Amino acid sequence: MTEATEGRGKPDRRNAILEAAWPLIAERGYHHVRVQDIAAICGTSTGTIHYYFPGKDDVLQEALRYCVDQAFIRQGEALRQIENARKRLLALIEMQLPAGVQVRNEWSIWLQFWTETCLNPELRALHNDFYERWLDAVVRTVRRGQRQGIFRDTDPVVFARLLTSATDGAAIKILTGAPNMSVDSMRQMLVNIIDTHLSLLPDGGTRAEAAVAGRA
Amino acid sequence: MTEATEGRGKPDRRNAILEAAWPLIAERGYHHVRVQDIAAICGTSTGTIHYYFPGKDDVLQEALRYCVDQAFIRQGEALRQIENARKRLLALIEMQLPAGVQVRNEWSIWLQFWTETCLNPELRALHNDFYERWLDAVVRTVRRGQRQGIFRDTDPVVFARLLTSATDGAAIKILTGAPNMSVDSMRQMLVNIIDTHLSLLPDGGTRAEAAVAGRA
DNA sequence: CGCGTCTGACTGACGCGTCGATCATTTAGC
DNA sequence: GCTAAATGATCGACGCGTCAGTCAGACGCG
Lengths: 216, 216
Hints:
2 copies of one chain form a homodimer.
Chain A: H1 2-5, H2 11-28, H3 35-42, H4 46-52, H5 56-80, H6 85-96, H7 101-119, H8 124-148, H9 156-175, H10 183-198, H11 207-214
Helix pairs in contact in A: 2-3, 2-5, 2-7, 6-8, 6-10, 8-9, 9-10, 10-11
Chain A binds a DNA duplex through helix 4.
């Protein structure tokens, strides 16, 4: 795969194709994206797309990787300056809320990625590589909080399983337009999970502070 | 839609087509199912499929409805004889665990349904109709438990949001082959949610009993 | 500097396989 | 013998991938 999908020519053009491809996938869906559509957005021809990528599937898979990598880098930068573990978790949650178009599109990509992975086990390795990063981010933040003495000693892996499951499930509800879930109630639910499972105080601790930090 | 998809002829043949279609969708994916494939399983021709359904999309959408309805009926029957609210919830969870091929396929259908609904808002009404049933089942069971005096007076809707989100998220992890989630840890996680949010005792109550009932 | 050559990005019309849908025809039931 | 049910060859649209060709700029050489 490395040499097959390794781009020829200038990487800016190649990136332009990927940058055009992934929002298209997010909005129309993997199976409804035509090579012609990507070419049109880049202001180029279908031949050019095939000049940089062997086939349509390669464009789409690379676009997937591109999108996930971009998001991961963005999150990493945002978290770098936050020391307090609780605030890191809250910031992590805040960045996952499908509020803007960007994050909504990223969730759409994930949803489709899940579907394809479920149908085609060959994608599992790639998927789990991506997903593990996000899960590890939670686990490491919990451990940090426990070292800082602001979190109870809950099993970090078990907690991360719960938090990420609830996050994914809630995002689905929002994307599908479920009437009983909104961005606000998603935030509230996730913050509540943190309070319930990590807080030192039995009643859940500083809810008010959490809500404020969550909106930052 | 009503008259367009309303079947002609004997309903057994029509149902046979749907019965053949939905596992095919679950295993190969909506977009990879050919009319020819469905016909082949039924031991019939593509013409017959089009005799009962106007187009391919109609077959697939009806198959979706068929699958969801069947599952809902099955669950309703299983729950009918269970009086105790906690045992009802545990049974509900147990039936959602993607352990066998049947339930796995149903989750695959849901996953694809979510994806399509996210991409095509016209499906939202249908999707929310289906989803609401499952959410209501949880809400009503919680209320029942509160009337029975075995559940704390947590907000049933908020609780249902959490439980269903976590369920959906956990199922996705299992279907995508995530290394840190198994059927057992999914069960454990969901039972733990019940204990934490509904149990009368502060420590979570009868975990042992719950685990046993869960396997029934 | 000027000329010829070469390379490599880019084009877009076309071939070809695929698949949904059609419809003339056959078969079965009453 | 009439109607409903079922067939499957055939049509036509669609879209991926190919490939012969264009063009601009780099390069070498006198």
